[in-house]
Structure formats: structure tokens, C-alpha cells
Specification:
With 200 residues, the protein is of the alpha+beta class. It is 52% helix and 12% strand. It has three domains: 76 residues; 45 residues, no CATH class; 53 residues, Arc Repressor Mutant, subunit A. A hairpin with a 5-residue loop joins strand 1 and strand 2. Helix 2 packs across helix 6 and helix 4 packs across helix 5.
């Protein structure tokens, strides 16, 4: 997604702990999917829309936006339980020997796995999955339809559509017009990039 970055001059995020604690509370009390949705909305707020995601009111607004009780969640995250949940993740990271970012660890039911450190080509992840799953060949899932993806994500930046559907930036708007009914999305622009929001 596009990154503005001026927030870090005007109103810098002092710590990633507050939104991380909110993420952990949502994960504990709701689902991994809901926590991931919170993470996605937080990235949008920070990078594209220049909001300080460590600010209490912003965290509450994001949680409310995904259908949760933001005030209750943020209040719980500010308690000792929020910090404890976060430290459990830190302990897991230490036990797994994670020292670099990003680190992807894949394990199977026998607790055998592979660790991939750093940004790597797709083939490295495919090979890792083959080893963990003990498979000779691995077939990717089909790419979701654009309507399904937009319905799931609620907001897609042009770059995400370009990568997902292997199209040039100039062709994104045409693809959207071909794949989606006009009353199912809105087009906006931020930082010189189009983004699309679901209206249904």
C-alpha cells in the first residue's frame, strides 16, 4: 500500500506496543481472522491515511470499524493481560530462535518444520511447504475473483490488484470496470494511487 510517512515527523508513533496489545486481546477474545482484520485496518490507517495507530482514540475507532467494542478492547489491552499476551509471543519468538525480520516458520503435525529468514522469492516458501508437508508437488489455490477479494478486504489499493492479478497499473481501472458492477465499489485516490472500497 502507499506510504505517506509524514506522520512520523508531525505525530510519531512512539511505540508499537499499544496496537500490538489490542491485536492480542482481539485474538484472545474473538478470532485470528478478526485480529488479522484489525491488523489490516491498522496498516491502512498508519501508512496510507497517516493516523497514529498507538493513539487510544484511533485504536478504538479501528476496532469499532470492524464491528467490535473498541473501548472495551482497548481498555483490556491497557491492563496487565494485554502486556502478558504480548510477552507470550516474545517468549515464543525466543524459543523458536527468531532473530531476523521477517521470519516464517512452518511446522507440520509431527512438529517438524523449516525456518525461512529474510525476504525471499516465492519458490523458497513453496519449497518450505513441500518439505513440511512431505509433498513432491504443490498446487496453488486459484486466485480469488476480484469481487470476492474486495468483499473480504473491504479496501484494495491499486498496487495490490496489480500484483494479485498480474496487470499493469494503467489497466487496473479497466479490470475493475470489467469485473465489478459500478454500484459495488467506490474509487478514491491517495498519494497518487487509486484505491477501491466495497460499497456492498
Amino acid at each position: 500500500m502507499p506510504i505517506d510517512g509524514t506522520l512520523m515527523i508531525d505525530n510519531p508513533v512512539q511505540s508499537s506496543y499499544p496496537p500490538s496489545r489490542v491485536f492480542k486481546v482481539i485474538q484472545k477474545n474473538h478470532t485470528d481472522a478478526k485480529a488479522t482484520e484489525y491488523l489490516r485496518r491498522s496498516r491502512e490507517a498508519l501508512f496510507a491515511f497517516n493516523q497514529n495507530i498507538s493513539d487510544k482514540s484511533v485504536m478504538i475507532e479501528i476496532a469499532n470499524h470492524i464491528g467490535l467494542d473498541g473501548k472495551a478492547i482497548v481498555n483490556e489491552a491497557e491492563q496487565q493481560v494485554g502486556l502478558q499476551l504480548l510477552h507470550e509471543d516474545f517468549d515464543l519468538v525466543r524459543r523458536l530462535g527468531v532473530r531476523g525480520f521477517p521470519t516464517i516458520i512452518m511446522t507440520n503435525e509431527e512438529n517438524k518444520g523449516v525456518k525461512i529468514v529474510g525476504s525471499r522469492p516465492l519458490d523458497n516458501y513453496v519449497d518450505g511447504l513441500k518439505k513440511v508437508l512431505n509433498l513432491e508437488d504443490l498446487q496453488p489455490k486459484p486466485v480469488p475473483s476480484l469481487s470476492d477479494l474486495l468483499e473480504k478486504e473491504k479496501l484494495l489499493f491499486s498496487k495490490e490488484i496489480e500484483v494479485m492479478y498480474d496487470v499493469e497499473q494503467a489497466d487496473v481501472k479497466f479490470l475493475i470496470e470489467q469485473e465489478l458492477p459500478t454500484n459495488h465499489y467506490q474509487v478514491n485516490e491517495i498519494l497518487g494511487e487509486l484505491y477501491f472500497t466495497a460499497t456492498k
